[in-house]
Amino acid sequence: MTQRRRGRPSLSQNTSRLQGGDMDMEEDVSFTQTLTQAQRNLEKHSPEQISLKVGELVQYLLIRDQKKLPIKRADIVKNVVKEYKDIYAELLLRAKKALLEVFGFQLEEIDTKAHIYILINTLERGEGDDLKVNDNTAKLGLLTVILSLIFMKGNTAKEVAIWETLRRLRVDPGERHEDFGDVKKLVTDEFVKQKYLEYNKVPHTDPPEYEFRWGPRAIKETSKLKILEFVSKIQQKDPKSWVTQYRDAQEIPRSQAPRASTSARS
Amino acid sequence: MAISESHQRFLQILMSHGIMEASAVRKLHKHCCEVHKVHYMHDKLDDFVDVINKHLQPLFMQIRKGTDENDGRRYYSLVNIAENEVTKMAMDYAENELELFRKAMDLIIDSDNGFASSTNILNLADQLQSKKMKKKEVEQLLQNFVQDKWLIERDGEYSLHTRCLMEMEHYIQSTYQDMVKTCNICHNVAIQGQVCDNCGIKIHLTCVEKYFKGHEEPRCPQCAEGWSQEIPRLSQTDSPVPSTSQKETRAGQRKAISVAASTRSRRS
Ligand SMILES: [Zn+2]
Ligand SMILES: [Zn+2]
């Protein structure tokens, strides 16, 4: 057990964070080094030291993912990689391989500018996987409903429309819910931080109106087709009866292509 | 043998639980084999886990079996076997919270029976060097430690959760060394247990129960003095319960129930 600070503001921390920010820019040099440089750097550390670091990195990513929060490269460097920064790319590559081969998790960079990673489960959710009944299961159910609403409304849904539907399902954003707690906070804050949803102000609205879209984690973890199947199961209708949505769901997602800015609609 | 999706699912689910009781792990083994249509052999759980462990070894992790000191049940948990700084706990708590945990651990390990009273732990609040805490905050923190399966609570006293013992065995042994006693019967680390009034050896409650079973006048296995502590009778759901269990004391039953409750999973 060691002492490690959580992200709590204090004076001394603020300065180190500032330095961290500066460092991040220099870092890009070491992240894009040439092959020979990388090899030379690798030789500076013993193979044992390197595998220890890889193990540490894998555990760090796994623990962070348990909370479904995105992982920043700056935090990986600060908390785990530390003086092994010169071989960061190699460490990450090996950790990525181990996560996929041993744990069945795909490490994905969902924001190539800010260098933010998430783990995507490569295994389909199986029925009966939830031997543990916890609040997450219920929350994921709510999330699926919201993702469905957004998709069925053409990939964007006004906040008011979402609340209205949820109210009809007896989930009132203004009241404390037994399973979800503060519903509004869960949807507009927790799901957004976890990158399941995007929540943005509609341009040129006064008083401001907000709308929801799928976040990058939702795009990676599920698909429009799966969501459409979910909706058709509930409504007991053929998915093809929703012509536009069905066509949209058939399109191969440009998952690796840089995502267009949120204001551009398809 | 190569790792398959059934192994991966097993590992993922075990990890999300933190710690799982053996009977639940057996069900999980069956579930994972069925989902991936792998031939399920109920007596091959150890082999199944060994395959995973072989792949975890280069990453300094391991699925380990541990025994609950209180009820003797077997548990499985994924633990870190490297002496590095990444621990699940260090990432979830602030520095002063970790300091409080270490100080509470000192009290627990220093005690005879492996428990520290909440009063004594609350008194640590203003001894913290990193950042002082209010008593109210410590109370909340203790609840979090219990929910996150680092501590167990029983009648206002705290001890280490089995998961904590499994995860931090190395840390505990290197930090406390001779202070940590080993059980005179099973020779594993003993935090919760009974101590001989005469010679000071420690025995797990479950080991006391087994060792003294049927003894009219129990004597210390080390110094042969009379064993002055009350011999616990814990009901075990895992093993067939002998017919004499009808005569179990109420206190014994209560104890077993509260232990089961305290080892149950996170936030309901
Ligand atoms: Zn023992
Ligand atoms: Zn003795």
UniProtKB/TrEMBL annotation, chain A:
**Record SMART domains:** MAGE
Q: Which GO terms describe its cellular component?
A: nucleus
Q: Which residues form a coiled coil?
A: none
Record-annotated MAGE domain positions: 50-249
Pfam families on file: MAGE
Q: Which residues form the signal peptide?
A: none
Q: Where do the segments described as Disordered lie?
A: 1-23, 236-266
The protein's matches in Gene3D superfamilies, at most eight in alphabetical order, are given as: MAGE homology domain, winged helix WH1 motif, MAGE homology domain, winged helix WH2 motif
Which PANTHER family does the protein's record reference? MELANOMA-ASSOCIATED ANTIGEN MAGE ANTIGEN, NSE3 HOMOLOG, SMC5-SMC6 COMPLEX COMPONENT
UniProt protein name: MAGE domain-containing protein
Q: Which organism is it from?
A: Engystomops pustulosus
TrEMBL record, chain B:
Reactions accelerated catalytically: S-ubiquitinyl-[E2 ubiquitin-conjugating enzyme]-L-cysteine + [acceptor protein]-L-lysine = [E2 ubiquitin-conjugating enzyme]-L-cysteine + N(6)-ubiquitinyl-[acceptor protein]-L-lysine
Give the principal location in a single coarse category: nucleus
Q: Where in the cell is it found?
A: Chromosome, Telomere; Nucleus
Every RING-type domain range: 183-223
Chaperone found in the keyword field: no
Instruction: Show the ranges annotated as biased composition (Polar residues).
Output: 234-246
Is DNA damage there in the keyword field? yes
Region Disordered, residue ranges: 231-268
A Pfam family per the record: SMC_Nse1
Instruction: Please state what class of enzyme this protein is.
Output: transferase
One GO molecular function term of this record is: ubiquitin protein ligase activity
Any Gene Ontology biological process: double-strand break repair via homologous recombination
Gene Ontology annotations for the cellular component aspect, listed alphabetically:
chromosome, telomeric region; nucleus; Smc5-Smc6 complex
Q: Which residues form the Phorbol-ester/DAG-type domain?
A: 169-220
Record's keyword terms, sorted = Chromosome, DNA damage, DNA recombination, DNA repair, Metal-binding, Nucleus, Telomere, Transferase, Ubl conjugation, Ubl conjugation pathway, Zinc, Zinc-finger
EC number(s) recorded for this UniProt protein = 2.3.2.27
Quaternary structure, per UniProt, is: Component of the Smc5-Smc6 complex.
Function (record text) = RING-type zinc finger-containing E3 ubiquitin ligase that assembles with melanoma antigen protein (MAGE) to catalyze the direct transfer of ubiquitin from E2 ubiquitin-conjugating enzyme to a specific substrate. Within MAGE-RING ubiquitin ligase complex, MAGE stimulates and specifies ubiquitin ligase activity likely through recruitment and/or stabilization of the E2 ubiquitin-conjugating enzyme at the E3:substrate complex. Involved in maintenance of genome integrity, DNA damage response and DNA repair.
**Stated family:** Belongs to the NSE1 family.
For this entry, the protein name equals Non-structural maintenance of chromosomes element 1 homolog
